[in-house]
Amino acid sequence: MAFDHSKYIPFQPVRKTDRRWPDQVIEKAPTWCAVDLRDGNQALVKPMTVAQKQRLFDLLVKVGFKEIEIGFPAASQPDFDFCRKLIEEDRIPDDVRIQVLTQARPELIERTYQALEGAKRAIVHVYNSTSTVQRQQVFGMDREGVKQIAVNGAKVVKDLATRYPETDWTFQYSPESFTGTELDYAAEVVDAVTEVWRPDLGQKVIINLPATVEMATPNVFADQIEWICDKIQRREHLSVSVHTHNDRGCGVAAAELAVMAGADRVEGTLMGNGERTGNMDLVTMAMNLYSQGIDPQVDMSNMAEITDVVEACTEISTHPRHPYAGELVFTAFSGSHQDAIRKCLAYRNDGDKWNVAYLPIDPRDLGRRYEEVVRINSQSGKGGVAHVLERDYKISLPRWLQIEFSQCVQREAETNGGEIDSHTIHRLFEDRYLAVADGWRLSTYDLHRDEEGVNATIKFGKPAVELKGHGLGAVEAVVASLQDRYGISVAVEAYDEFALGEGTTANAMACIRTVVNGEVHSSAALAEDTTSATLQALLSAVGNHVVATAEAEPATA
Ligand code: KIV
Ligand code: ZN
């Protein structure tokens, strides 16, 4: 059998009895390091050109990242050239620290320093893989041998830095594949490296712990981070960084839990581009903090620009459901969601804290519009349809008409199988409720009240039909005249009239639901005053019945 789970070895978590991180709450943003131009770039089908790298670098700076890994210059000539370009063209703001990656090999470290010559400040990031699988199967080396690679690399990094005293250096070490490394051994290697670098004597040092491959649930990663933070020497002089990948789909969760467990710094990429299933997504993690009222220390307000630039540079499109950035993430199609959102937005006052059902953050904070929130398809209900008419056409429907009209919209959506835009909804409303049958347009009306009620005279159609009737109110009087004239029974079941909001030519709208000879006919009308609107709506409803009946009857000779 090919699909055989028994072939896999369950991850053995660290046995921890003094776990503290579950009680921690993140209250401030970690130090961010964007690795789009290195880890992200290494994962692309078509690595970025220098122009694309420049564009993405400028975006990262604009968003506010202060540490940016720009490449692997000893391994790639374009990366080397890009590094030189940034330095020689003075394109690195003073508060930004570039970072470059190198393997722990002397000749590569030497070349790395050449790439960085003249930088005001920089992070030299040296790594070697420490995992059991790589020691056994890739390098054929024991623990001591692999530790020596790290120590030798650290020594070369330290020695060569003295050749470039004009640069403010930070050293970074990653035991690559940390999640697949025995914890006590990872701590031993890290200690050996910091013994060389001596952060306690003033050297800036970052220890970066990568989930090069995400191998377990995020709580296990948090345990590993808390364990190692407790164990390593010189902890208070170090910046502990995490670099998570997303193999199990939990890259962001693992980084968040790692921060709760003591990590100071987080590496990731915008939108999570990176090897295999990607790196930890900086957009998601930063916005998660933002949605908790925490300053993320980066500005994502122009999300459209972020997605545009990332897409252009990586040639990977953004998933429509990507947290915070996808086209559909602020859109509700479902009727009950639309209804709740509509009510919460109406309930809100300017300056209130954000507390809107189904919208974890205000779409406007990311440059999105409320117009995108409610979109209609066959899953939508009366609330959504009413919201669209109200929002785009200032038409507020009474509840009974919302129910009736939304069924009509739903039928249309089921027939066309997709989304129904606001223009189509309005057209359906016009065709179904506002259209006036030939010969049924109101031209004048005259109402007189006496002790017994109202005497109404109406004229409609061309040539004009004039009708007179009496009733307790205007509607009843006109109903009486219509019953008389056409020999039909007319009952008014529901009737609403209201003034319209600004931005329309008509001032009033009326909606009426009648039962004519046992058949339901609903209509609406727009007019300059509420009485005209009401009488027109009534004429339209009755007219629809009369016209339909005449059409259905065979012509007599
Ligand atoms: O995923 C990884 O381990 C890396 C290291 C080089 C930090 O990208
Ligand atoms: Zn990585």
Automatic annotation (TrEMBL):
The pathway to which it is assigned is: Amino-acid biosynthesis; L-leucine biosynthesis; L-leucine from 3-methyl-2-oxobutanoate: step 1/4
Answer yes or no on keyword Transferase. Answer: yes
What biological function has been recorded for the protein in this entry? Catalyzes the condensation of the acetyl group of acetyl-CoA with 3-methyl-2-oxobutanoate (2-ketoisovalerate) to form 3-carboxy-3-hydroxy-4-methylpentanoate (2-isopropylmalate).
What name goes with this protein? 2-isopropylmalate synthase
Give the span(s) annotated as Regulatory domain: 436-557
- Main localization is cytoplasm
Check the record and name the Pfam families matching this protein: HMGL-like (PF00682), IPMS_D2 (PF22615), LeuA_dimer (PF08502)
* HAMAP family listed in its UniProt record: LeuA_type2
Localized where?
Cytoplasm
